[in-house]
Amino acid sequence: MLSPSTRSKLHPQIQAFHRKQSLKHAILIAIAITFASLVMGLPLLAIFFRAFEEGIAIYWQNIVEPDTIHAILLTVITAIIVLPVNIVFGVCAAWAVTRFKFPGRRALITIIELPFSISPIVAGLCYLLVYGATGLVGSYLDGWDIQLMFNLTGIVLVSLFVTCPFVARELIPLMEMSGQEQEEAALTLGANGWQTFWYVTLPNIKWALLYGAILANARVIGEFGAVSVVSGNIRGETMTLPLQVQLLYDDYNPTGAFAAATALTVIAIITLFLRSAIEARHPHRH
Amino acid sequence: MVSHPASASILNSGARRNALPRTVMPGFGLTLGTTLLFVMLIILLPLSGLFLQMVQLPPSDYIRIIMSERTLTALWVTVSAAALATVFNAFFGLLLAWVIVRYEFPGKRIVDALIDLPFALPTAVAGIALVALYDRNGWMGSLLSEMGLQVAYTWWGIALAMMFTSVPFGVRTVQPVLESLNEDFEEAARTLGASDFAVFRLIVFPQVLPSFIVGSSLAFARSLGEFGAVIFIAGNMPFKTEIASLLIMIRLEEYDYPAASAIAGTVLLMALITLILANIAQARASRHLQKEA
Amino acid sequence: MALSAKGITKFYGQNQILNGVDLDIRPGEFVALLGPSGSGKTSLLRIIAGLQFPEAGQIFFDGTDITGQEARKRQFGVVFQSYALFEHMTVADNVGFGMKMRPRRERPTKSDILDKIHQLLDMAGIAALADRYPGQLSGGQRQRVALARALAIDPRLLLLDEPFSALDSKIRKGLRTALREIQREVGTSAILVTHDQEEAFDVADRVAVMSDGRIEQFDEPEVLLKRPSSAFVADFLEKSADFQSQGAGI
């Protein structure tokens, strides 16, 4: 982009060219910005506007309402359980798939990515069918009075389904591309498996791991459809925050719903920010 | 270890084969075992549950469920809205990606970050935000109703919600390809007299086509299954604005597992077919590219 | 015999990479595996290192059968073609890595480790680079770090996989000489894989000329030149000699 002073010194034909190009670019940019603001920016604004519509006092009242607090806690607990499991799974899967050759390797990678293509409602249904009280596994466990669905366990299980590809998906291309030479070197120097992983592999994958974990986390906290099916929607007990948002809305308490939504939105914005920051310093490959 | 037939005699003499470890890198048993256990319990078992339900369903029952007017309408509503959303996103996504990759402008970083909002924002939150915006009293809704258009509680609302949630697919799949484009080809075309649009159509687009296809198919598959963002703005009237996911949920609540499974399986099948077709189309488009290059 | 390999056979799927290879290395000897790409020389080296396992054959070191032994137990120093330095560790940490990985009972004290690191960096001529990161170093410097790191574990055998192929010829010559001096000083046997005849002849006591998964001839350089045992050996050495005498080696 030329500064006006520079441009004015150029040959008139060149000036005309730049003007035409700038106009074309400006139109495209304007369309893009309009699209982005209308489609993405407006909803964001609307959430906060509606939440604070009745004033800050009402907003705060809505936030500290016991059911909402419980929903926040349930969501946080789910995330705390699901995140480490995903990280361990992601690392194991990436190691197994990139450091060894075995029949079915490609199929395994495809299976791990399956949850991405499956609708959350369908996921919830699958879990009810198998782990519900009348399901394949569930009916068996029912005999021992173990209930997997319609409680925290069900929410955690289905959240695992929905988020398990995130970490693995970031690590696999990275570890495949960077090869295992550094690990081989570590082995020849006398390191065992754990030492090799801790001192050599982990430092190399830590940003991709963090990136995947942040995405997975955002997804766990925000998951709605799948959790909706398996949680049983028991007020004050098995409502995660997104479910609570729906409950408040359906109860004709939109301000309350939006207040709860602001908590989720803030987390989403933080996620975007972190993602952007990591991407800027450590661009990832797919 | 793969063994060559001719080497069998060598293998059986001399070397103590059973003493040799199978792998050099440590941790095979541990990592593969953990991975397989997890995959089995969390991914495969649940999916096989659905598969079993569907297999146990007599074909006549399946047809009865799917061909019922309510189911057919729901499927049609879902597919058509997803199609519109995808087409819209495919092109606007390409435009957005182009603008971000090629131009500098104030607020570019914010626009770039906003694009991922639909991925980061819970679908239920998106749902109520969209309804708030587009119902008769909303900022956009009031504008539109002055023009005689209604979006909320109609099929258009469904398409809108689906469009919102799949924006990232439309942008992020083509963005890296655009970033890595060699502008020499475009410059060469320009020197030969091609207009901007011709350059785009003949030089840029063919290179972007494979990822464009992938992005569109992912957007479509996602839209087919979208639930949270849609149900608030949809109106959810059976035979009119009911999406397939909601119908599955309703059948579940009625404990009609066979019906829920039948519909779920159908939606799943549609998504899978989309992805497979897209894979083939993408492979063909890439091959075509490589032949030229 | 320091190292004795007998009948080493290796397949990749349907391809036979090594076909019944025998190799005997004397203590303190410097041996070069010389041959064109695809001759199997790198595979042989990796099998000796324990980074691959053969389909058939045995390897003995100092009389012990190490055919199935894990790489980490062999105590062989390996220098990789692309150096494989740990990018997020300093040069000093790279060199000290092997010592720190020893089980607690056998591990030297912290100050002993530091002393040894400095001693090795001095020997490799890179003492000033101790606190730098591999990303900040030139190719030749990285190679010296890789060598120092391999020597830090008091290796019973030194294995080098085309260590100089990525460097330009002036640096290559200097490093070659340094390597030879260090090897003589430390006294460990060494095996160097290369496709460069001048390099092999310059540095090695004996050279094994390889082709298509077999060792064609294994002799001192002068013997190879005067009495090539096969047409391949004669051709290969002549071709490489021609190539180099045309000034390409300078």
CATH class of the largest domain in chain A: Mainly Alpha
> Within the CATH hierarchy, at the fold level, what is the topology of chain C?
Rossmann fold
Annotated CATH architecture of chain C = 3-Layer(aba) Sandwich
Rg over C-alpha atoms of chain C, rounded to the nearest angstrom = 18 Å
Question: What is the H/E order of chain C?
Answer: EEEHEEHEHHHEHEHEEHH
Q: Based on the structure, what is the oligomeric state of the protein chains?
A: heterotrimer
Global geometry of chain C: globular
**How would you write the strand order of the largest sheet of chain C?**
6-7-8-3-9-10
Q: The biggest beta sheet of chain C, please? A: 6 strands, mixed
Specify the CATH homologous superfamily of chain C: P-loop containing nucleotide triphosphate hydrolases
* Number of continuous helical runs of chain C: 9
- Name of the CATH architecture of the largest domain in chain A: Orthogonal Bundle
Determine Rg of chain A (CA atoms, Å). Answer: 25 Å
Number of strands of chain C: 10
Beta-strand residue fraction of chain C: 15-25%
Shape of chain A: flat
Instruction: Report on the biggest sheet of chain A.
Output: none
> Residue-averaged pLDDT of chain A, rounded?
90
- List low-pLDDT spans of chain C: none
Description:
The complex is a heterotrimer of chains A (286), B (293) and C (250). By secondary structure, chain A is an all-alpha fold. Chain A folds into 2 domains: 4-51; 56-281, MetI-like (MetI-like fold, Orthogonal Bundle), CATH 1.10.3720.10. Chain A is built from 14 helices and no strands. Chain A has helices at 4-8, 12-51, 56-63, 66-99, 105-117, 120-131, 136-142, 152-163, 165-178, 181-188, 193-222, 225-231, 241-250, 254-281. In chain B, α4 packs across α12 (196-225), α9 (155-172) runs antiparallel to α13 and α11 packs across α12 (196-225). Chain B has one domain (59-292): MetI-like fold (Orthogonal Bundle), CATH 1.10.3720.10. With 250 residues, chain C is of the alpha/beta class. Chain C has a single domain, classed as P-loop containing nucleotide triphosphate hydrolases (Rossmann fold), CATH 3.40.50. Chain C is built from 9 helices and 10 strands. In chain C, the strands form 2 sheets. A 6-stranded mixed beta sheet of chain C has the order 6-7-8-3-9-10, with helices on both faces. The B-C interface holds B 1-4, 7, 10-11, 13-16, 19-21, 24 and C 7, 9, 11, 13-14, 16, 20, 50-58, 67-68, 70-71.
